[in-house]
Amino acid sequence: KRLESSFYAFNKSIDRFIISYEKFIKEFDKGNVYVSKKYSNKIFELIDNDDDQAIQRFIEEDKVKKYDAKEFNKVFKDDLIQDLNVLKEVKKIWSKVKRDPKIIKFIDVLKTDPILKNKKIIIFTESKETAEYLESKIQVHFPNQVLLYTGQSSSKVREKVTDNFDAKARLPKDDFLILVSTEVLSEGVNLHRSNIVINYDIPWNPTRLMQRVGRINRVDTKFDIIYSYNFFPTIQSNDQIKLTEAAVAKIAAFISLLGNDARLLTDGEVIESHELFNRLTSKKTITGEDEDETSILEYISEIKNIRDKNPDLFAKVKRLPKKARSSRCNSKLSGSLLTYFRKGKLQKFFLANTKESIELDFFTAAELLRAEIETKLTKLSKGYYSLLDMNKKSFEFSTIEEPINENKKGKGGRDSTTQFLKNLRAMNDYRQYTEDQELYLRKVIKQTEEGGLPKQTIKIALKELKSEINNGIKPLKFLAVLQKNIPDELLKEHIAESSASTSGPREVILSEFFTGE
User: Fold this and answer.
1) What are the φ and ψ backbone dihedral angles of 66, each rounded to 5 degrees?
2) CA-CA distances (angstroms) from residue 396 to 285, 402, 418?
3) What SS3 state is found at 339?
């Protein structure tokens, strides 16, 4: 996938892999093995800086697990060394490759396509390295006309983006014709002084394509036509990653599901096949790897299958009365109650035990509610109603409809939200953040503004932020406090909530009680 993005990004990735392996082996020889899904590179950076306290904090927060090298099989190190040797061999082979046919083709299109001539153009790529590479190559042919924006760009560069590409800019400028950006600009920014988006590489997730085009396809655009250019992989590389088929199938499935008539990838006929859902939800069929995340569409696909293959069951589910309740065995959650609430189109899930009621994201709740048809009912506990009351209070508290008034003084839930937002907006130094970290912070701001975060979560995060600010907080520490209190799961939108109308009565839809028997 990195190779498909650009030869330059691929070489940079190989370099990083080599460095990562060398550091891992060096630390292994010292007797330490650090395992983390997200923070491995950060740990090596901290090791280089001898920051043992920070490493220990990662371990205590359960972001990283530390093992003794003696716990590992003796062949483990041999395998690591073999991998490292393979990576070095790949690096050696690629060091001889000097010609990049993709960038040659791309520059040719930029120079010769009449639609692109003297027009404002937005170029998106998933890779920061590819973005930097593109900017340097395009500048040669279009000197002083190219602006680069990545997660490491300053607020001044962001102002230049707005001034040159946002049709609503207060002081519009024409210093730049071409904007090269990573995903960090695919949300929350208007770029509709342009009507041309070029996808230099194609993301796995089709919603990103929609977001990219959405930057120029605004309601108040002056253009009648929006152009979307897509650079697909070569036949040879596509044989390896099957990206074209994956992207086209996913877009077709979205169109089939959501009725979206935007042909973002091809001008071909929309495929109305339910088989697409299997391809849509299974990364394994595309890459041979299991997916890290579950898709909302997996559940929608399941419901569609029931509707089409078992209409009697579908009708029975549809007629279930509100406040339906059930009980079954779950030894890990014994004595807990999961309740599904609705207010208008807003849907929320809360899990209560005798100590607390916490909000769950959709995917966690769906997995807890999932049951086989043979699952046996258990007797409902006497504690059911007290737990239901706890969940009701949490839901009411999280859906209080008061406008955010940033001038209001005093104490209260909305004031916590206001103070929290002020702190978030005050932290505008993004230079040390990665693209993912900057995107995370923008999502936190957006969810807070739209009332999508639990108020208890905001209160706890605000309390910790204030404590750190008094000590002279730094950007990375600021982010660490947020990530500790606001996990990515709370920022995930699902179809029911993304355009939620919260008007209407609060309703209990169903509850599931978990017993230990």
Assistant:
1) -110, 130
2) 43, 12, 19
3) strand
Residue 343's closest CA among 401, 414, 403, 405? 401
Over the stretch 358-414, which tens digit does the pLDDT of each residue have?
888 777 888 889 888 889 999 888 788 899 999 998 888 877 654 444 444 444 445
**Beta carbons within 10 angstroms of residue 471's beta carbon:** 8
Residue with tokens 């409902």: 380
Distant-in-sequence, close-in-space partners of 436: CB < 8 Å, separation ≥ 6:
151
Instruction: Specify the pLDDT at position 473.
Output: 67
Q: CA-to-CA distance for 13 and 135, rounded, in angstroms? A: 19
For the cut 60, the answer to whether the pLDDT of residue 283 exceeds it is no
Q: d(Cα 158, Cα 489) in Å, to the nearest integer?
A: 28
Q: Which of 486, 485, 492, 479 is nearest to 42 (CA)?
A: 479
Token pair 């550091």 is at which residue? Answer: 23
H or E element at residue 129: helix 128-141
Q: Which two tokens stand for residue 303?
A: 């419901």
Determine which of 94-108, 307-321, 478-492, 498-512 has the lowest per-residue pLDDT on average: 498-512
Contact call for residues 463 and 416 (beta carbons, < 8 A):
no
- How far is CA 147 from its chain centroid? 25
Burial bucket for residue 284 (CB in 10 Å: 0-12, 13-18, 19+): exposed
Distance, in Å, from the CA atom of 382 to the CA atom of 254, rounded to the nearest integer, reads 45
* Dihedrals phi, psi of 266, to nearest 5 degrees: -135, 165
From 77, 66, 96, 90, select the one nearest 22 (Cα to Cα): 77
Give the tens place of pLDDT for each residue, 295-308: 566 677 777 778 77
Which residue reads 């596509």 in tokens? Answer: 238
> Cα(201)–Cα(125) distance, rounded to whole angstroms?
6
